[in-house]
Every structure is written in C-alpha cells, then in structure tokens.
C-alpha cells in the first residue's frame, strides 16, 4: 500500500501560550485507497490536525513536527509551493456547504477556477471537464449556470466535492462534510465519497464526531481526546473492541437505533484516574 | 392509557414566498398540511423529519408562538387559539420550550439568575425570596451551582448553556415542554448527559415532552411515540418500537435505513 501522507510528532500551540498543547505529539499515516477517520469531541484537535496538513492554520497558532506528503516535507514550504499542492494534490471539503461557496459566482465558474489555476484548462476543454465533474457527483450538467443559493444543501456539498476532486487529488480531506445535512442526504454523500475514493484510489482523511458515520465509511480510525491520539486501529477494532477507557466511554454515549443501549455519559474525573493508572 | 394533555387537530399553516424572476410572483408552501397529534400526559412524543418537513413550524404553532391558518390546539381541553392577552400569558407557564441553539437562545447581557428567574417574575409567582429559592433549586437540579446565578452566558460551555435553557423552562413547573432539537448542537458525550437529565426530570416533575428532532438515534432513546413528517404532512405515527421495527411507509423506511452505522452494526 502506498503511503501518501506521514505526520510525525505534530504539536500545535497558540503563539501567545506555547505551553497550551492544542494538538500534542500526533503521528499518523495515510495510505492510498484507505479512509481514515479522526473521531473526537469539540476541542479534541481533530480539525486543527487537518488544517495543518493544508497549511491553513491561523496565524495565531504555531505547529511543530513533520508532515511529509509523498515523502516530501511540506511544513517548510512557502505559500507559493503550497499553493501548487493545495487544491491539486490535496483536496479539501469543509463542513458548511452554505458558507464555503461564493454566492455571486455560478457553481460552474467556481469549479472551473480550480481547473484553470492548476491545469490551465480553458474554453471548450474547461467546459467539458466541468460537465464531466458535475456528472460524476450526480448533479445535472445544466446546473453549472446556477448560483449556490439555487441549490439545496446536499447539492452544494456535491459541488464542493466536484471542486475538491477536480484535479484528481491523491489525498482528500473531509472535515465533517455531512454534519449539516439531513440523514438521507448524508447517506448519499457518504456513498458518493466512498465510491470516488475507490475509483480514484485516493487516501481520505475524514473528520467526524459521529460514530455512525465512522461505521459507514472508515477503514481505519483515530480517536483524539484533548489534543492527543488515545487510540488507533481498524474500524472493527475500535468499534467492537475498544481498548482505551476514553474510547469505551465515548462509545457508551452514542445512542443506537435499536434503543437497547443504556446511555452512559463520560465521567471525566474517573477517566483521569484511570489514565494515570494505565 | 393516560389522558391526552395537548392535542392538535387539523393544523394548516401556509407560507407565502416571493417567486419568479424579480420576486413579483408568489408561491405557496404548505408547512403544515392537516397535521393532528395527541400528546399523552407524562410521555414523550417525538416529531421527526428532515429540514423543511414542517416540524419546527409545528412546535411554534403548538405554543401559539406563530399563528396558523386553520385547526385547533387544545391544552387540557382548552382551545389555545381562543385565548388572548392575560389568559394566554397565564396559560403559557404550563407550556414551555427548550431551544436548539444554546448560544443564541440566552440573552448575553443577562445574568443566569435573571434568565432563569425571568419567567417567575413575569408570571408573578411567589415573593422575591421564594423566586430566588426556586431558581437556586432548579439550577442545582440541572447540575449547576448557586454561584452561577451571578455569571453571564458566555462563561458557560454549550452543554451547560443547554442546562440553563432547561432550568429556565422548568422553573415554572410546566406541564408540557416542547424541545426543539435540544441536543443537536452538542457533542455526543454532552448529548447523553442532557438526554438523561431530560428523562430524569420528566419522571420527577411528570412532564410531557414534544421532542422535535432529525436524529433518529436520539429519538429512539427518549420517545414513547413518534410522528414522522415529510413536506408538511404526517406520514407515519405510532409507538416508537413499532415504527422502528416495522415501518409501514416507504419514507420512514428510507429515513431509518439512512441512519449512519446501521448496516455495520
């Protein structure tokens, strides 16, 4: 299996408070054709980890450690060099399909921007590629002339996906791409992402807080808690045989559709003692 | 079979929307199309549906926070739409609401004590000391502290704010509480805490909940009965176990099979 991305000892701190570890010593590897889910609660550092891969961290934050994309260190790259990777070899989808599209440009134009910038496509070739992409994500071709407000949330997220896969990236980062969507739409989008991943043999890094989504889409799972990775494993290992007390506690909070499970909130005090003992 | 405490019959609500190229034309959207529900005392009725299904409109119409075109809402046999002014206001203390967004639903300039006590003040319930006592007791009951009365909403996390929202609704000792997506903005661990809190409070205070949600996993854990809405209409209605185990309508089947993680589980 080809390794696409290696993160080693990534630590993120605010510049003003270097002792506050927002992300603490995180290491992970992403391989082609595999979906890795990062699961965690808000504030666990899952989004920061994803943003740092794209070099999109806020200027208030600083990152230490190594991020290697296809074997090349990308943390030291300047903006221009990063620009050629971002959007081309690494695609990203964000949570809010409402705010991540420009409301005054047609969706066709916005998909085209990526293609022109990275592949230099123009004219008929550009139009053809836009149509092909829209078809791939299941949107009628004539929708290229629509503005974002004329599309539903699910369609907008499909447009975002079309943009992110436009240059056939090796790595697709999806940060809670279905959180804002209805369940039936969510199921369609998950299916689409999974099919695209397989067809294009991409590595996919999928950030979510929803264990149901993990069960549907993940190959490997990384559980984060307060900036640290507490457990990694295959989907089967994490979901059915979790080892770390936090993973167990988090799973016990998830309501099941059968209603058999007794919900149990996390007892953080207990967790701390347990962690110290372990 | 317990008595019906809140009943809505044949509710119709139509929104008029600007349409056409310059918005000169109008089109009608039926947000509620002949909707009838019955909430039994001490139970939870969940209303589920996707965005645009009319579930939030139903919540607001039930509480008379929004006028509807036709239909009736009976609370303990009394027609709420016929009540006005003071009568409606005094009835409102029996019907409370918990909102979705714990960040938007608390006034950032008011202290927690004022937020939770405001209802008591408006309805003139008890002396000042009694009101304060009630606020303190309610806050402690939802897992906050007496000292928190002096704090402002921004000093609390999302889950704590939702507890404040619950305290505000319950301090009036209502009979019916409409919860509009009360846990959907919360982390799953916090969600579990709030769900359990709502369940405990229901038992202690004999509350009846209308629980609006799009999350079918959450609904399974809290509801006794469930109503499935689609495009303003009720498509299916029944006891929670029946609807989950043997959904009759195609739409309900689709919704249930779209629950993430169901196949793998």
CATH architecture of one domain in chain B: 3-Layer(aba) Sandwich
Query: Quick one: CATH class of the largest domain in chain A?
Result: Alpha Beta
Query: How do the strands line up in the largest sheet of chain B?
Result: 6-7-8-3-9-10
**Oligomer class:** heterodimer
Beta strand % of chain A = 15-25%
Instruction: Characterize the main sheet of chain B.
Output: 6 strands, mixed
Q: Radius of gyration of chain A in whole Å, from Cα?
A: 19 Å
In CATH, the architecture of the largest domain in chain A is 3-Layer(aba) Sandwich
Structure, explained:
The complex is a heterodimer of chains A (278) and B (265). Chain A is of the alpha/beta class. Chain A folds into 2 domains: 3-89 and 168-242, P-loop containing nucleotide triphosphate hydrolases (Rossmann fold, 3-Layer(aba) Sandwich), CATH 3.40.50; 102-166, no CATH class. Helices cover 38% and strands 23% of the residues of chain A. Chain A has 10 helices and 10 strands. Chain A has helices at residues 46-53, 79-85, 107-119, 123-136, 153-165, 183-200, 211-217, 235-240, 245-253, 268-277, and strands spanning 3-14, 23-31, 35-39, 61-69, 72-73, 90-93, 171-175, 203-208, 220-225, 228-234. In chain A, helix 3 (107-119) packs across helix 4 and helix 3 packs parallel to helix 5. With 265 residues, chain B is an alpha/beta fold. Chain B has a domain at 1-94 and 209-265: Rossmann fold. Chain B has 9 helices and 10 strands. In chain B, strands 6-7-8-3-9-10 form a 6-stranded mixed β-sheet, with helices on both faces. Chain B has a 4-stranded antiparallel β-sheet with strand order 2-1-4-5. At the A-B interface, helix 6, helix 7 and helix 9 of A face helix 6, helix 7, helix 8 and helix 9 of B.
């Amino acid at each position: 299996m080809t390794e696409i991305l290696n993160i080693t000892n990534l630590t993120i701190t605010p510049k003003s408070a270097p002792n506050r570890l927002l992300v603490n010593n995180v290491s992970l590897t992403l391989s082609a054709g595999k979906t890795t889910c990062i699961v965690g609660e808000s504030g666990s550092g899952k989004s920061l980890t994803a943003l740092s891969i794209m070099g999109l961290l806020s200027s208030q934050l600083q990152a230490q450690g190594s991020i290697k994309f296809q074997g090349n260190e990308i943390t030291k790259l300047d903006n221009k060099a990063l620009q050629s990777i971002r959007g081309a070899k690494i695609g990203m989808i964000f949570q809010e399909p409402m705010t991540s599209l420009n409301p005054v440009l047609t969706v066709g134009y916005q998909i085209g921007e990526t293609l022109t910038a990275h592949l230099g496509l123009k004219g008929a070739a550009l139009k053809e590629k836009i149509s092909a992409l829209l078809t791939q994500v299941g949107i009628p071709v004539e929708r290229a002339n629509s503005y974002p407000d004329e599309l539903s949330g699910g369609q907008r997220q499909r447009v975002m996906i079309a943009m992110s896969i436009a240059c056939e990236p090796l790595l697709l980062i999806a940060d809670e791409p279905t959180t804002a969507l209805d369940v039936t739409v969510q199921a369609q989008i998950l299916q689409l992402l999974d099919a695209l991943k397989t067809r294009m043999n991409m590595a996919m890094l999928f950030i979510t807080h929803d264990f149901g989504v993990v069960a549907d889409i993940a190959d490997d799972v990384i559980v984060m808690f307060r900036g640290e990775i507490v457990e990694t494993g295959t989907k089967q290992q994490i979901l059915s045989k979790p080892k770390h007390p936090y993973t167990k506690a988090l799973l016990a909070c998830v309501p099941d559709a059968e209603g058999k499970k007794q919900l149990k909130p996390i007892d953080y005090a207990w967790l701390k003692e347990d962690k110290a003992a372990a | 079979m317990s008595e019906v405490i809140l009943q809505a019959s044949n509710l119709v609500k139509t929104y008029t929307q600007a349409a056409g190229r310059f918005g000169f034309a109008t089109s009608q959207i039926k947000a509620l199309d002949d909707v009838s529900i019955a909430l039994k005392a001490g139970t939870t009725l969940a209303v589920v549906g996707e965005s645009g299904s009319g579930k939030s409109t139903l919540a607001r119409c039930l509480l008379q926070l929004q006028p509807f075109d036709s239909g009736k809402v009976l609370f303990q046999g009394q027609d709420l739409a016929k009540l006005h002014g003071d009568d409606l206001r005094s009835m409102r203390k029996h019907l409370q609401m918990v909102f979705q967004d714990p960040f938007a639903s608390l006034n950032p300039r008011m202290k927690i004590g004022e937020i939770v006590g405001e209802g008591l003040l408006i309805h003139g319930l008890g002396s000042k000391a009694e009101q304060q006592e009630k606020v303190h007791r309610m806050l402690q009951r939802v897992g906050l502290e007496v000292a928190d009365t002096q704090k402002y909403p921004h000093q609390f996390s999302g889950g704590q704010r939702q507890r404040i929202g619950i305290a505000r609704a319950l301090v009036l000792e209502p009979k019916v509480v409409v919860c509009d997506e009360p846990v959907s903005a919360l982390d799953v661990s916090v969600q579990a805490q709030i769900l359990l809190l709502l369940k405990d409070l229901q038992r202690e205070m004999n509350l009846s909940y209308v629980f609006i949600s799009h999350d079918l996993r959450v609904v399974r854990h809290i509801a006794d009965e469930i109503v499935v809405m689609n495009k303003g209409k009720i498509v299916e209605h029944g006891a929670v176990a029946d609807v989950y185990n043997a959904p009759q309508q195609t739409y309900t089947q689709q919704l249930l099979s779209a629950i993430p993680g169901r196949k793998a589980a």
